[in-house]
């Protein structure tokens, strides 16, 4: 029967090790791309898409493979996002599979990024098929790489498939191994529907398109579905598979991977990891592992040109259509004017959003240093939550401040436990436990303040473990800490967008560092600019940006006119990402100086 012939898998690989090339070969060998009628359909779909101006990209394709045993198998190849900030999304994509192909470059060997995802796959009890790719290269060392796989991952690599995705060598064997090694999905078609959402995209024509893995039961157009995390109900308008374009089907059943549309208007309703069930015959409980994803860090986002405020709002709204984790609300800063307070999953997510806003929407932005959120008990008995340091009340009005703490799991090969512990201690970490997962890897667990790990913790970890550490963390709650607000004054005036909240024990050291960093980033002006760090009324660090020694244009007078013009143009370009704060011109980099103070 159908279920026995389904194989659901992902490809886990470091960037450039050949994942896309292997996927192309698999598509070719299974005739998913080459078939003439397929081709026509692909073109039709594209024409339609062009008319409607949309593209749907769901990270799963269905393939049909005729195996050596004469039977036809249904493969679902599920792609995983490659970003650290999205490790939760990776884990949900893997939870939609029974197996994973571990692809390692025969010349490069096992690399850090691979490890993090393999560990996730192992945690999910996936069957892993090791593949050593690029064996056609003269520098290939498949035997060495086999040993590495065994030592670094603790996986038997004696049966690894040797391939060249470039020449096609070994690919037929890969397909056979998918059939023989990766188990068929279990589950019961007669049980109430349980479908895992592992991806979702917004389509202006169909509303939200959910990528799901059906774990139990069956779903058809017309069914009334319910999302188990929030109880919202919708009527299914279409189900289907990506092959590789969307192809409608009569139903999706247990073991299937495909899409569901149900006139869902907002992607915020459809969180990755949630379970879809039937409203009239619901599952008893949701599938494991659902996590409400909430922003971890907040930053102020301001247009350099205040007139672009409305454009910025429209751009954020557009991005939000496809990014359920993006949150924002209006914010006003004395220094920077009107903008938005935006919540992000982490610093990489923040970078991605900034880049998209600037590139796709052509906006010039100033972003303030990221901050976590704080709970403040005030002396008048009220409690407030702030995610913007400038909003912290006066010290005399504060009874207690609590900051978010995380439980961090750091997985490393056991040679690197020492350096990892040293970094965690330095970041106010509290050691919890250490587990040996097998002969080679250790899971070190610490309680840490979130504010200490959002900046450079992961970079520090990586550089002191040759890149082999993987980090995962979740918020466990809030704890009272000895925290103070540090203000920065430029030319005697406090700049709200530069305020930070720091631990008392680190205040002096960090005040000095931020002042030094600002001195480097703020360019010389017509006048001297004193920079001060203050806690309350007390100045804890100071420095000065000297005035121009002489008019830089003076030496051009009477001289080379093009040189003068070049100089003026250069100054103008530099101004693009500058903001006048009072009388001082401050570049974007200055608002990130806090990142250099740790
Ligand atoms: P991805 O980043 O993992 O998706 O890697 P790609 O599939 O884009 O491959 C990265 C580069 O390696 C490309 O230039 C490919 O042509 C090349 N490549 C992939 N597989 C092989 C192979 O088996 N042999 C050789 N020599 N090159 C390969
Ligand atoms: Mg690729």
Automatic annotation (TrEMBL):
Say where the protein is mainly found.
Answer: membrane
Q: Which GO terms describe its biological process?
A: positive regulation of translation
* Region forming the signal peptide: none
In short, the EC number is 3.6.5.n1
Pfam families attached to this UniProt entry? EFG_C, GTP_EFTU, GTP_EFTU_D2, LepA_C
The membrane topology noted for this protein in its Swiss-Prot or TrEMBL record is:
Peripheral membrane protein
Q: Which reaction is recorded as catalysed by this protein?
A: GTP + H2O = GDP + phosphate + H(+)
Q: Which GO terms describe its cellular component?
A: plasma membrane
Any idea what job this protein has?
A: Required for accurate and efficient protein synthesis under certain stress conditions. May act as a fidelity factor of the translation reaction, by catalyzing a one-codon backward translocation of tRNAs on improperly translocated ribosomes. Back-translocation proceeds from a post-translocation (POST) complex to a pre-translocation (PRE) complex, thus giving elongation factor G a second chance to translocate the tRNAs correctly. Binds to ribosomes in a GTP-dependent manner.
* Membership in a protein family: Belongs to the TRAFAC class translation factor GTPase superfamily. Classic translation factor GTPase family. LepA subfamily. Belongs to the GTP-binding elongation factor family. LepA subfamily.
**Entry protein name:** Elongation factor 4
Which lineage? Bacteria, Bacillati, Bacillota, Bacilli, Lactobacillales
